[in-house]
Amino acid sequence: MLVACALKPPGTFIKSFDESGIWKTIEVRENLDRDELWRLMVDTLTQKYDLEVVQKDSGYIRTSWKHTYVRNGAVIQNYRSRIVVKTVGEDWGKVQIKCESNWLDNRQGWLLGYDTRLLADAFSDIQGKIGRVVR
After folding, report:
1. How many angstroms separate the Cα of 68 from the Cα of each of 51, 91, 123?
2. How far is residue 37's CA from residue 9's CA, in Å, rounded to a whole number?
3. How many distinct helices (H) and strands (E) make up the chain?
4. Can you list the pairs that 107-112 forms with residues at least 24 positions away whose Cβ atoms lie under 8 Å?
5. Residue 78 near residue 103 (C-beta atoms within 8 A)
6. pTM above 0.85?
7. SS3 for 3?
8. Given this model, what pLDDT does residue 134 score?
9. pLDDT tens digit string along 55-65?
């Protein structure tokens, strides 16, 4: 019975057929210059992830794949996720973030999608550091 349970992705995995992940947008606080914005994004992501691609000039960061699904204290090796963050516009007034997740199905190979919980967590972490406060 445990083997059958291990063959299902977590309930937070959303299978996607087009591009894996959905972009969520954060409006950046006015008082942040590019260097401080960049530092905050990198610092926030490195608290939980290893960075694979870091391109400051274009405002793009991608983490390495991380096995993020744990069941009964064991990491499930056929589920992985990564976070992608990019700045938007010449003034970097917005930041977009998405989570890409893959589930390895024995019959179909890697299924593309995203993880709603990981996306919400990463969005909240970054938004809390750089986001505009609405009053």
Report:
1. 15, 34, 16
2. 35
3. 3, 9
4. 111/9, 111/15, 112/15, 112/16, 112/17, 112/20
5. yes
6. yes
7. helix
8. 58
9. 999 999 999 99
